[in-house]
Specification:
4% of the residues lie in helices and 41% in strands. The strands form 2 sheets. Strands 1-4-9-6-7 form a 5-stranded mixed β-sheet, with no helix packed on it. The longest helix is centred in the C-terminal third of the chain and has 4 residues.
Length: 113
């Protein structure tokens, strides 16, 4: 099945921005995010009591080889800001996944970049 798109994108603002509710990771299919390589950051929150892993998969090739995926460890109850991810390496559709639905994703777009 195709990856589940993350659509809970909010624009950052000098006046402040209320974050959209986190979306649980689609463990079976992974998630995706349309991005331009500069203006999107992802907030990953682990709501569980065990360490979880988030994986960001590059889609570009180097000499015909796909580089290794980037993994980020999230301790229990941890929150991490991820990105931005270079468009040349990750394409206009960022592929992101987590090993458990305890991980919730929120997305912030930074206008003007």
């Amino acid at each position: 099945m195709p990856r589940t798109p993350l659509t809970n994108v909010v624009d950052a603002s000098k006046a402040g921005t209320t974050l959209a509710a986190g979306v649980a990771a689609d463990v079976a299919n992974g998630n995706s995010l349309v991005h331009d390589g500069r203006s999107m950051i992802v907030i990953a929150t682990n709501a569980g009591v065990s360490t979880r892993t988030v994986t960001i998969t590059p889609t570009a090739t180097v000499d015909g080889l796909i580089p290794a995926a980037r993994t980020v460890s999230l301790a229990a109850s941890a929150v991490k800001v991820l990105g931005p991810y270079d468009l040349a390496n990750y394409s206009s559709t960022l592929q992101i996944s987590a090993d458990h639905a305890d991980v919730k994703f929120q997305v912030i777009r930074i206008p003007g970049f």
